[in-house]
Design brief:
Number of helices: 8
CATH class: Alpha Beta
Number of strands: 5
CATH topology: Rossmann fold
Strand content: 5-15%
CATH architecture: 3-Layer(aba) Sandwich
Number of domains: 1
Radius of gyration: 17 Å
Structural class: alpha/beta
Largest sheet: 5 strands, parallel
Order of helices and strands: EHEHEHEHHEHHH
Strand order of the largest sheet: 3-2-1-4-5
CATH superfamily: HUPs
Helix content: 25-40%
């Protein structure tokens, strides 16, 4: 069985990506990164998702990207955008972009993959709904594959690494449908950038709005919202 390292944030996209890897027959090792995000709810969700989806193992790594600031996800002084219209979401680079986050996360996944002798990395990157994030684009992912071949012992010795982004060209509705097809318990996933006390999703940030639209367009209720009423 081929091994893979799957980045698992605890969100809908990464949970579906993990399920995709498992469905393709990979021995999927899930990696969650505590990178200095303002809340830990998604970390707890990632633990539940890893168990439910059938990850071969699950590790949580820590690297504090909040030192650099520059993102509303790591710096409490920067407001998370709320109630933005659809045409504004995905246009330009939003304040929720975390500088170099996916570069760092994929590098951590690559380090573990070398030790596991895995040659496949999975990430829930998406360019349809998150077109404003430069590290969610195909060119970045292909460039990282080339970097992996140059920067690792395995690569120098002839191994080729592949970065899989199975959700890359899907809409959020497509992702919801695929998650349900794969048997993902979406009630275990977390999307909100700015949770209210409780915790409860704010319902107004870009991630909440995209999630709500995805479930609405897929024609199914959001089990997460129903479970917390």
């Amino acid at each position: 069985m081929r091994r893979a390292v799957v980045l698992l944030s605890g969100g809908l996209d990464s949970a579906t990506t993990l399920a995709e890897a498992v469905s393709k027959g990979f021995e999927a090792h899930a990696l969650t990164v505590r990178y200095g995000q303002r809340h830990d709810i998604e970390i707890e969700c990632a633990k539940a998702v890893a168990r439910a989806v059938g990850a071969a193992s699950h590790r949580i790594a820590a690297v504090d990207l909040s030192f650099a600031g520059g993102s509303a996800l790591t710096d409490p002084s920067l407001p998370v955008p709320k109630s933005r219209p659809d045409d504004a979401i995905g246009a330009g680079i939003p304040p929720t972009y975390v500088p170099a986050r996916n570069t760092v996360l994929l590098s951590l996944a690559l380090a573990w993959a070398e030790v596991l002798e895995a040659r496949d990395l999975f990430i829930g990157a998406n360019v349809v709904d998150y077109g404003g994030y430069p590290d969610c684009r195909p060119a970045f992912l292909r460039s990282f594959e080339r970097l992996a071949g140059l920067a690792t012992r395995a690569g120098v010795e002839g191994a080729a690494f592949t970065v899989h982004a199975p959700l890359l060209l899907m809409t959020k509705a497509d992702i919801v449908r695929r998650a349900l097809d794969l048997g993902v318990d979406t009630s275990l996933t977390w999307s909100c950038y700015d949770p209210a006390p409780g915790p409860a999703p704010c319902g107004l940030c870009d991630a909440c709005l995209l999630r709500a639209r995805g479930f609405r367009e897929a024609g199914v209720p959001d089990a997460f919202s129903l479970a917390r009423r």
